[in-house]
Amino acid sequence: MKLALVVLVAVAGTTILAAGEFRIDLISMKSNIDLEIRETSGKFKIIDSPWYKEKRKQSIEIRGETFDQWKTYSITFVPKKSGEVFLKVNAPYVKPGEKPKVCAYDNFKVKGAELKNGGFEEKVPAHGWIPGWETKDGLMTGDAPEGKFYMHATNRKAVRQNLNCRENVPVTITFMAKNAVW
User: Fold this and answer.
1) Of 45, 120, 165, 170, which residue is least crowded by CB atoms under 10 Å?
2) Distance between CA atoms of 141 and 22, rounded to whole angstroms?
């Protein structure tokens, strides 16, 4: 009986520890475009940045639960006018000095706008910048669900790309994510 209880507690603890979080930010403050989240593939936490007051709909944070296995997620938003929307792929914030939360990402696809190098498979030039993603950090090999490469991101080591969007045209971002360690 004691052994069964110990095993049950160990399994329960493992399940609780296995859940993590992805974080995707959609930012359009420079182009002054209000964004509306229309649909998500799961029960996500959506924060529209009330501290920006009249620009609160121009900086939206989307979070969802991740696991130890790759899973596909999607987010659909509608820009209220044409212009650039900054896609920032990262992980939840932690206070300075705390261990960063890490999330792995791959297989980004966008409908309604253009995204470059969504699978992180384009050859990295000698300067080291990952094509399309404004970063040199985080490119990984080994456990990619699509191709050979995928990305690790934290809140301080985000990957990002600008999306050129059209007024009232829905933009759907589909991607895969899972828990990771740096």
Assistant:
1) 45
2) 19
d(CA 35, CA 23): 17
pLDDT tens-digit map of 42-68: 999 999 888 888 899 999 999 999 999
* Residue count (the chain): 182
Q: Find the DSSP H helices in the chain.
A: 2-18
d(CA 150, CA 140): 5
CB within 8 Å of 170: residues ≥ 6 apart:
38, 76, 77, 78, 111, 112
pTM of the shown model: 0.87
Backbone φ and ψ of 113, nearest 5°: -160, 170
- Give the pLDDT confidence of 63-110 residue by residue, as tens digits: 999 999 999 999 999 999 999 999 999 999 999 999 999 999 999 999
Alpha carbon distance 44, 177 (integer Å): 14
Residue 37 bridge partners (DSSP): 77
The tokens describing 77, both together, are: 């938003």
CA dist 149 and 57 (Å) reads 33
DSSP 125: P
